[in-house]
Structure formats: structure tokens, C-alpha cells
Amino acid sequence: MNKHSSMGLKPLVHIHFTNPFTEVNGNKIETLPSALADGIVKLQFEWALATFLILSVNYQLQNELIAMKNHFKFSLHLFLSLIFIMSISGNTVFGSSKSDGQVPAEKMTNAEKLGFPKGKTILLLHSDDAGMCEEANLSVQAYSLKNHVQSAAVMMPCPNAEEMVEWAKKHPKADIGVHLTLTSEWKNYRWGSLSDAKKVPGLIDREGKLWRSVPEVVTNATAKEVEIEIRAQIDKMINMGYKPSHIDTHMGTMYASPDFVKVFLKAAEDYNIPANAIDVSDPDVLAFYKQAGYPITDEVVGMIENYTLPKLDNFGSVPDGKSYQDKKNNFFNLVKSLKPGLTEIIFHPSIETENMKSITGSWQQRAWEAEMFSDPEVLEFFKTNDIQLTNWTEIMKMFEARRHK
């Protein structure tokens, strides 16, 4: 699958029953003599009833079916209707109608569940890596003050994290979360854990810093150590007098292990702070993340399914570009490919400085990302394509309003 392809929800199969003696699921059959038809119906019904009584967990329905068997006079139409009910309860699809002209039923998106309009693309633009350096902070703050992008998350172990949190406390419109950080990836610009290194030795490399790569974290750290550190990062922001609007994951580390996913979602629910939980009930989304190398096992699918806070329909990042215009065009194509629903798109804005160039080779992409969401062409693109922007604060308010109805 292409990295920027749409991974929205597919419609459910719709089954339509017509006159059972002339057409079944679009296939024409000959009308049978009534005696022969009754015999076929009886055989089909005896088989279906025996099977259904084994599979059904509805005792009352079983009794009703037994009673119907005793006087038996019901048509193949009703029989097929019962099979249809069984198929729905057992997640079995028997076929679809192509003759009735009805539109297949669609699964409600997470955006709709929150109260956003049906069929609309809802974008949550999100600035990652706030707090990493002054250049990142200035970019996040500029977007927030212009009301172009409100959502961002702070890397709490990093040198400029505290100044970013202090700024957020003075700007209530800002939508600031914790960018849970378990790696320190740059060659010369690095940081350690917030929690005592003696309590989380599996998170610490030979230089006394967090590991440079996600595989090193998975190989060396336990889920307990991860839980200690991420809660320390959340607690630090709260103890500074600012409750984060959300939590997410730097470099995707919290999705790199089923055990990490478990502590990630549990922390979100314990603090009642939404995580960037991606709904993987859609096969396309599930396949995408499996192909990307994430261990999305049946256990992880179950954890996300049972997660009680808001979920995203999709997730992506702003594509790179060979030039500023190329980067914008790639972003436009990404957004146009999205299916309706709630999609978070992350990026890493930082103003261009010599210091930024010394930290990362991705400085040019980051500098362009510090410009593009205030670019008149991009703002006009959102209007022209009827794209609605949101943030985590709004999402949680909508969620709480519906939960308490």
C-alpha cells in the first residue's frame, strides 16, 4: 500500500431478500411445484434449525424456533431471513444485493461518534517535538498565536521543555500534550530519562542517555520501566500546573511492543487524557501498520477496541518534498486521498538556524513545515476542499459531552 493512500472505513455488506421462489441474492431460479418446494423447505429448515440451536446463545430465540418447528408452516422467505440474522450475529457474510439500488450501510466513523458531520474530512494538525529546542518552541508558539495550528506535544526530558510548558500556561487556547519520549536519536544533541536511571536501567544506554533507536528500547527495556518513565513525564507537566490535553509517542515507540501499547493506553485512561489511539478495526488501516513493521497482534487489536477514550480513524505525517512547493503538493495529495473521518497528521516545525542545522539533517523539511500551515495557499486549500480542522481539546470536550448525555 502506498504510504499516503487512503485507509478509511469500508461499507458493510447489505443483504436484500426478494421473492425466494423467483430470485435469491440476484440469482434467478425456476418456480418449483408446491409439494417439492415444501419438501426442500423442510429439509433446509431441519438443517438450519439444528445448526442454529448449537450456535445460538439466545435461549428465548431457541425456544421460539422449536415452537415454530412444531407447526412448521413458514416460508422460505422467513427461513432466509433467519439465516440473515444468524449471519449478522456471527459476523458471516452471505452475499450482497446488486438489484435493489440501495446504498450499502457504512460503519460510523470515530469523527461521527464525536458529533462531527457525516462524510466530512476532519484534520487534526499536530506539531511534534516541542521542547526539543528553542527553534521548535518558537515555531509551535507562532502557529498557536496565529490560530493556524493549536495542537502540539512537548518532549518533557528535553532541554527546552519547561519553557514551552510555562508558555502554554499563559496561552489557554494552545492545545499542548506530552510527547512521550523514550529515545534520544541525534548524534550530538541528547537527553536522558526524567525518572531515576537506577529505576529504569533498561531505558539507558552506555552514555547515560535514552537509546537512539526504537529497536534498542524494545530489546532492553521492560514494560514496567516504560510505564515508570512515561508517567514521570506526564506528572512533570501536571506538577508544573498544566494538564496535558493529550499524550502521544515520539518515534512511535509506544506502538513498538504489545506490552508498551498496554501501558500507554492504561496511562491515558488512568489520567483521563486521550492518547493518539488509532482505530485498527478497518482492514486497510490494520494492514498498513502491519506492513510498516508495527506488531499489531490480535491482542493489540483487542486493547484498542476496548480503549474507552476517543480514537482516530487514521494517522499520517506530512510528506517530505524536494522543494517547498513540492512539499505542499505532496501534502495536498495526501489530504485528497483521505476518506471521511478523523485523521491526525503530524509534522515537526522548527525555524531555520545554524543550531538547528547542527542538530538534524532534516532541518530543511522542518523549516518548511514551520511555514506551510500559515501559507495562504494551504489555508485556501482547506477552505476549497471543505476540510475541517480540530484539536485534542475540542475532541475531548465533544467526547465528554456525549458521554454524559
Overview of this structure, please?
The protein has helices at residues 34-55, 59-71, 76-89, 110-114, 134-146, 161-169, 214-220, 223-239, 258-271, 283-291, 298-306, 324-337, 354-359, 363-372, 376-384, 392-403, and strands at residues 23-24, 27-28, 121-130, 151-154, 175-180, 247-249, 314-317, 341-347, 388-389. The chain starts with 22 loop residues before the first strand and ends with a helix. The longest helix is centred in the N-terminal third of the chain and has 22 residues, at 34-55. It is built from 16 helices and nine strands. Helix content is 45%, strand content 10%. It has 405 residues and is of the alpha/beta class. Helix 1 (34-55) runs parallel beside helix 3. Mean pLDDT is 81; it is low at 1-101. The strands form two sheets. Strands 3, 4, 5, 6, 7, 8 and 9 form a seven-stranded parallel beta sheet that branches. It has a two-stranded antiparallel ribbon with strand order 1-2. The protein has two domains: 23-89, no CATH class; 110-403, TIM Barrel.
